[in-house]
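Researcher: Structure for this, please.
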Amino acid sequence: MQHIQGISRNQLQVSSLEDTISAENPVRFIDAFVGNIDLEKLGFTPRVLKSEGRPSFDTVVFLKIYLYGYLNGIRSSRRLEKECLRNLEMQWLLEAISPNYHSIADFRKDNPQALKQLFKLFVSFLKEADLISGNTIAIDGTKSRAHNSKKANFNQKKIDKHLAYIEAKTEEYLTALEQNDSQENTTTITNIQQKIERLKQNKIRYELLEEQLQASGEPQVSTTDPDARALLVQGQVVEVSYNIQAAVDDKHNLVVATHTINRNDKNALSAIAKEAKENLEVATFTVLVDKGYHNGREIETCKKDSITTIVAVPDQGKSNENGTQPDYLVSKFIYNKENNTYTCPEGQILTTSGSWHKKTRDGENTSYMFQKYRTSACKTCPVKDQCTSRKGGREIDRSQYADAVEENQKRYQANPQLYRKRQEINEHIFGTIKRKWGYNYTDLIGLEKVNGEHSLIMLVYNIKRSINILGVPDLIAKLHTWNSPYKKKFLFCLKTTYLKLYLAQIIFETNQNTTQFRVA
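Model: Predicted structure, token format:
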């Protein structure tokens, strides 16, 4: 049977690396993008030439390696080192330079802030390229597993449990020691003494952890990565992880702002919304957010920054057989702004004394002020048992952020179609990054470094999506017309050494021509 034949390994071929890379290859955009940026001005640590030893690698080389690696699902420094040696695209991109894995790893570790700045810079390029509208932004978060196991994460309850176990086991071993001591069983006594000593060491370790926990003021402490926290991932599932926040534009689903935190979404809205506003350089925009972000203080902060919020409203409470029934939930009480009162479903007026009370949330370092509204009519109300189980009657609390919350609730109820777009805009981004690319964990330690890596991941996502939208040639063309303050300025200069060689060549040719003229 006739088969397609390959080219002999011994066949000599005359070609260049340039011939192997097509015009549509994404590696060409990486080369053009990095080549147009002044990395030192952006904050990347430059590789300084040493007086002795081998010359260092340019910072440009390492950035190209990581952009190519993350674009192709490779982030291990050892694997990237191998790709530099065997991958034709990488050889073209780096001009056959191949750094060792240690130098590659150090670059990512040493430049977290610069990587974050690079992400912001690319957002400005996308905006100038008209790939971002900046009108409607969807915000969401996802968890990324930290380089810290659950066993290396402790709260006070877990420490108390370990200490109680140590005390119980110590008592058990001391009792066994007394019994064996009377029987003069030397081998068993030695084994028990070793176990007791090991328990003493463990007790000291847990007591030190308890001191560290109390000194930090945090509800938990992690021993491998001090910044990692045990966060609720889904339902009752808890993982020691980080929380990646992302703000996504609705025009082409490109990420316009991102940062990583080590807490839940409850107090995260205003920070990521303000970051998006700064990156986009716009006066205002509308932000779509799920109910996990619903927080009066955060909504009020966004309002002050001219950011229009449409945050889903969580359930205001549930009815039960012995307490509040559906017709008497808080949402059924009407607030009268003019006289600062509430009207209950039965038509009674709830008033306030005007005093402000302070409330601190459990497990959080935040507090807010609120007023209480009551009415004496509750005592004789025939439906009191359907409204409240309090002996003193129904009581309504109104926080200092209630006005902003109510305005947000009206926008949410008036724009169901717009809010429904939220999942379409940002949910698939996390699916792509975590499921398809496998970036659902981090090997870096410390919030700052993790922030740098996640900024790099979001940058690569934007690069890949913008290439899919425009194509490599058109994207490079827009890159050449990009007006950026960090754009590299190319200076064409002639070194003195080359100038001398050039002049020497001219003199030599002149003398040769003169000699030929004389001979003639």
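Researcher: Any notable elements?
Model: The chain is about 50% helix and 15% strand. Residues 491-499 have pLDDT under 50 and may be disordered.
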